[in-house]
Specification:
By secondary structure, the chain is α+β, with helices and mostly antiparallel strands. The protein has 10 helices and 8 strands.
Length: about 280
Amino acid sequence: MQDARKQKLVQSLDRAVAILDSFTADRQDLGVSDIARLTRLSRSTTHRLLMSLQHNQLVRQVPGGTRYALGPHVLRLAHAALAHVALETIAEPIMTWLRDTCGETVGFHLPHGEYARTVVSQVESRQPLRRTYTDIGQPIPIYQGAPGKLLLAYRPPEIQAEVLARPMEATTVHTITDPQRLQKELERIAGQGYALSLEERTPGISTCSTPIYNHTGKVIAALSVSGPSSRLTPERLLEIVPLARQAAHRISMQLGHVDDSSLGDRDAVLTSAGSPSHG
């Protein structure tokens, strides 16, 4: 008898979660019939569970109608969950997978103020000749290198304009310091969803970088794969891009990002990218 009661409670919980999962960014309010159809529950069961969820502020009734939306308790739970999200902890196992898959050093980068970015962690390549970040935690001009360009490409236009208006220093002969050229590069990065750098910040080092999104769809970080240019030729970088995008997508999903678009395959990336330049 007690086991039957436990089973019924678990079933009710599963059904309640299914109702909550019915709401998405595209379905912010739903009627009882809509929810019953989406969850394949009867209207009576759906209505009963909605009353319980409403009592606990997990759903609310939309004013002036009979439709429902997620309630304030969901926001409180989401806030508590986000407060304990450790980006590096989430990213590390996926970064390790990417390192083991492509054999090169993987870096994790965050914006640092408006005009810089910083390397916060890395998973080093096991190869004798490899990229090793020695400037972890230090500010790096945001226009230098693939991760910085990628983060800048997703910043608001006014921030981009401010960066382009400021003096830009070259650290190698390939650093982009011309504002018009950099603007075109940022547009290309935003359009293709990844950035490349062929020795733009560090001599002898080439890099590709992909964006990491949070639950609101905002780019908050960049993932990178980098190594000696002798190994990471332009062709090899483009082979790695789909793997880096897959890893960044997995991290983004852990942060609550929902993306229904295809990651694309290697052929699609190669076709859209063409031959990379030193930009």
